[in-house]
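Input/output pair, single chain:
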Amino acid sequence: MDIVKGRIVKAKAGRDKDKFFVVVDIYKNTAYICDGKTRRIEKPKRKNVLHLAPTAEMADEFNSNRKIREILKNYRGD
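Output:
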């Protein structure tokens, strides 16, 4: 399973370990991720793809912070 734009991923390392994010962009071996709350779409976190675990889920629409929060909330089952 590849890490592609729109994929829901889980952080494996760093201060955000075990948190879920949506990949909003990819550049070489770097993914730009956001969760809509602490990491907003206006300023996504840059993270090495080796530090991310892809899930089977894809986000269809992730054009706003509110939508990203809803997607992740539904995925986590909160």
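The chain has one domain: 7-76. The beta strands are 7-11, 20-27, 30-34, 45-48, 52-58.
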